[in-house]
């Protein structure tokens, strides 16, 4: 202790702590970062200006949470409102990828890509025109014949004993007359016609939109694929490109297989209907061929439509037609379609059926159409990527 320190101690003044150079060995000082009263090294609560602890602002937290919920709700509504547009884009992209092998085939025949795309589009437009031309005149003739023969059918129905007893017991004719002459009948008929017109307009708009989008996607498909591959790191880009090109090839093979199965169904239907003397053999054959493009239930729908059309002229022959199509459906489902699809997409029939059911449950008809190529893509990824990595572990 120095003389100055002794003097200060004698005068009663506080002695300052010794500096680092004056510390004696073995002395310990408290860490300045430690806090008194803090158990377990927990930091102290930050005091406010008034000296109290800082508390969370529950109003701000609730307001921000409400804004988040509102934003999520608006986003869900926007996506649901634009759901039809997403479906159009998905279908158009699917068709563009499926028709790409035909375009490549035309390009190998020394045709420019724009000319190949134009040729495919003209063929599609021609097919739609022929289909409508074969459907509309017979349908209008059937409606005209039905309207013209309706009074005679009603007279025959009134003369039937069963109908007379039914009318005497339940006043069927009086109920029908009251319903037709009622004030709401015209409004209901007009509303029904407006609803049918709206459905037809929506269908035409959807068809035109998908057609235009398919045209643009076919023109820009190589660029879209190149940009998609650039999102993959360079070290893995070559393998991803190989898998992506194989997926595109399988989607094209799936569409080609569906067209082959539908064409076979249409040819068989035309030959049978022509053999039994149906006046609308070509029309019904086109209906069978188009509905056969629908997975699982397409052939059944076409068979029912053709059988019903034949049964209107001859009920016995309509029953024969139904039996013929049921037999052909079994042959197509268990012999033709599995072999074509196994060669096209290399997917087991059980996977095809399961995928079509799940796709139909999620997106309806569009989901059923897209489910099988999606299953083929997932199967390819499993075989080329997932299973080899699991085997190396």
UniProtKB/TrEMBL annotation:
InterPro entries: AI-2E-like (IPR002549). It comes from Nocardiopsis alba. Residues 1-53 are annotated as: Disordered. Residues 1-10 have a biased composition (Polar residues). Pfam families: AI-2E_transport. The keyword Lipoprotein does not apply. The chain crosses the membrane at residues 58-79, 85-107, 114-136, 203-232, 253-276, 282-309, 316-337, 357-382. Keywords: Cell membrane, Membrane, Transmembrane, Transmembrane helix, Transport. Its main location: membrane. It is a multi-pass membrane protein. Belongs to the autoinducer-2 exporter (AI-2E) (TC 2.A.86) family. This is AI-2E family transporter. It is found in: Cell membrane.
């Amino acid at each position: 202790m120095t003389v100055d320190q002794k003097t200060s101690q004698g005068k009663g003044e506080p002695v300052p702590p010794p500096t680092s150079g004056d510390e004696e060995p073995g002395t310990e000082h408290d860490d300045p970062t430690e806090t008194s009263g803090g158990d377990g090294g927990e930091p102290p609560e930050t005091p406010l200006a008034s000296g109290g602890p800082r508390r969370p602002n529950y109003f701000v937290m609730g307001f921000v949470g409400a804004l988040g919920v509102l934003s999520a709700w608006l986003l869900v509504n926007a996506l649901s409102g634009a759901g039809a547009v997403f479906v159009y884009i998905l279908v158009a992209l699917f068709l563009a990828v499926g028709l790409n092998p035909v375009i490549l085939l035309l390009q190998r025949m020394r045709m420019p890509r724009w000319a190949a795309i134009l040729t495919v589009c003209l063929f599609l437009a021609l097919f739609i025109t022929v289909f409508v031309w074969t459907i509309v005149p017979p349908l209008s003739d059937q409606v005209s014949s039905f309207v013209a023969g309706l009074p005679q059918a009603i007279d025959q129905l009134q003369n039937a004993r069963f109908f007379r007893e039914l009318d005497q017991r339940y006043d069927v004719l009086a109920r029908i007359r009251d319903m037709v002459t009622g004030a709401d009948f015209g409004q209901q008929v007009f509303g029904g016609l407006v609803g049918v017109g709206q459905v037809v307009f929506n269908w035409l708009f959807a068809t035109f939109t998908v057609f235009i989008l398919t045209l643009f996607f076919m023109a820009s498909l190589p660029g879209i694929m190149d940009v998609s591959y650039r999102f993959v790191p360079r070290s893995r880009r070559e393998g991803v490109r190989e898998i992506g090109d194989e997926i595109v090839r399988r989607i094209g093979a799936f569409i080609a297989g569906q067209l082959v199965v539908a064409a076979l169904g249409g040819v068989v239907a035309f030959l049978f209907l022509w053999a039994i003397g149906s006046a609308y053999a070509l029309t019904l054959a086109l209906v069978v061929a188009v509905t056969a493009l629908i997975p699982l239930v397409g052939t059944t729908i076409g068979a029912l439509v053709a059988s019903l059309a034949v049964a209107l002229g001859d009920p016995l022959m309509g029953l024969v037609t139904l039996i013929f199509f049921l037999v052909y459906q079994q042959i197509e489902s268990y012999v033709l379609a599995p072999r074509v699809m196994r060669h096209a997409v290399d997917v087991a029939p059980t996977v095809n059926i399961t995928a079509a059911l799940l796709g139909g449950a999620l997106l309806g008809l569009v989901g059923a159409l897209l489910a099988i190529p999606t299953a083929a893509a997932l199967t390819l990824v499993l075989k080329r990527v997932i299973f080899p990595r699991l085997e190396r572990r």
